[in-house]
Design goal:
25 helices; Serine Threonine Protein Phosphatase 5, Tetratricopeptide repeat; mainly alpha
Length: 450
């Protein structure tokens, strides 16, 4: 197996885990056949070796069985659709983008055999993959198709609502989720989406209650999913962290890891909360564990920041370089990680013009509050204060209680001469979540003292 790797000091990061495996040999002849049948250029990732044991003992057995079925019958729509489902689940468990490509090709192969009207399973899979690949416009189209075919089923409303939310169409998303809640009340899918909507609108108490209901629903399911349980705990941790409730957040992250060991999202977030609790060594260890599993740019940057604070500039720059390499490795990575890199440039005063242009391009299509915040921050760093002012107003328009938003607003208001507003925003950021970011929160505190 030949994979694209890179070295940082004594550590080698397998960048192939993010979907850039140049060539690979599969474990059996049938797997090679099915790969050729789905697409002549589909490649299998090393994710089987990197997945948690719980995934290997269930998903991988099913995947190999279904690959063998398709190898014997390339027109087996049921097997192709199930393959897409299992590939998507494996992506959620491992964070390996290669699974998205495999799921995409399986769904496309299924729909090539049987059209959408008779193959809604293939359409649902394709919609979910395009959403995961941040092709939200296509997901909107597919969601509406699903609703047209099955107006009394929740699947289409789920896809459509998710895509509208990411595009910043909040009123439409709210109405879509309301219909989903009528059709599928109290489910994990419904409760978690209503929780997300509540958080965006600044109601963190309601968000927590919704995530708790989602967790209870999953734990009471006939066949509970360990990954889903871990995800619910992780979301509860994220909500607590945003409110500066670090011990509560830490407990949820530990619960996530108990439910699903090596859950990368929980490992990364646990590293962040250890940093907030002034345990830099523990934070570094956790982030190193996370990037050892998957070289996610967000975690590489965070690890670089911690090295920077520890006075290890060389190690910091090495991790920043790997984050950039991963984020720009191919078109898919550029889309998936573009916002992370744009924020990195703005936070670290690098490539100001490039960062602003990137943020502006994305916001033209995806005008959500997080995109507005990135646009405001990059505009500020590029010296475009008028655009920064307009964008930060959009970022704050829903009342989202994110300390980073208020921190950015404070510096923008100060630059435009509105000292009182700057002080209010800065006070809000630090009272809400005083350790929202190892580097930026220290800058915020310095600004507050001045």
């Amino acid at each position: 197996m030949i994979e694209f790797c890179t070295r940082v000091g004594s550590k080698v990061f397998n960048i192939g885990l993010l979907g850039v495996v140049l060539t690979a040999s599969l474990s059996c002849a049938s797997c090679l056949k099915v790969r050729r049948m789905i697409s002549s250029d589909t490649t299998h990732s090393s994710a089987v070796n990197s997945a948690p044991k719980s995934s290997l003992s269930s998903n991988m057995v099913a995947i190999r069985f279904l690959e063998d079925r398709v190898a014997h019958d390339p027109d087996d729509v049921v097997a192709l659709n199930k393959l897409s489902v299992y590939y998507l689940q494996s992506y959620r468990e491992t964070y390996d983008n290669a699974y998205l490509e495999l799921a995409h090709r399986s769904a496309k192969a299924s729909l090539k055999v049987l059209g959408t009207e008779q193959n809604l399973g293939g359409l649902i899979a394709l919609a979910q993959v395009r959403f995961a690949l941040h092709d939200f416009s296509s997901a909107v189209t597919y969601g509406r198709q699903l609703i047209e075919y099955q107006p009394d089923k929740s699947a289409g409303y789920q896809v459509l609502g998710d895509a509208l939310l990411e595009l910043g169409e909040y009123q439409q998303a709210t109405a879509t989720y309301a219909r989903m809640a009528e059709l599928d009340p109290g489910s994990v899918a419904t409760e978690s989406r209503l929780a997300r909507l509540a958080f965006l609108r600044g109601d963190t108490s309601a968000a927590k209650q919704r995530y708790k209901r989602a967790l209870e629903a999953e734990m009471n399911a006939r066949v509970p999913s360990a990954e889903s349980i871990a995800w619910c705990h992780w979301q509860l941790g994220e909500t607590a962290f945003q409110g500066g409730q670090y011990q509560e957040a830490e407990q949820h992250y530990h619960n996530a890891l108990k439910a699903f060991p090596n859950y990368v999202r929980a490992l990364g977030s646990l590293g962040r909360v250890r940093a907030a609790l002034n345990d830099r060594a523990g934070a570094i260890e956790l982030y190193e564990h996370a990037v050892g599993l998957v070289p996610e740019p967000l975690y590489l940057i965070a690890l670089g920041d911690l090295y920077q604070l520890a006075g290890k500039s060389k190690e910091a720059e090495e991790h920043y370089a790997v984050a950039e390499q991963v984020g720009k490795l191919n078109q898919a990575n550029d889309i998936l990680y573009g916002r992370q890199l744009t924020l990195f440039y703005a936070d670290h005063d690098r490539k100001a013009a490039e960062a602003f242009e990137s943020a502006a391009r994305e916001y033209a299509v995806r005008h959500d509050v997080y995109g507005a915040d990135v646009l405001a921050w990059t505009a500020f760093k590029a010296g475009r204060l008028s655009e920064a002012e307009n964008a930060i107003k959009q970022a704050l328009s829903l009342g989202t209680r994110d300390a980073r938003f208020f921190y950015h607003a404070a510096l923008i208001e100060r630059a435009t001469g509105n000292q009182k507003a700057a002080e209010n925003h800065l006070m809000m950021a630090l009272s809400l979540n005083p350790e929202f970011d190892p580097l930026q929160s220290s800058i915020a505190k310095q600004q507050f003292r001045h």
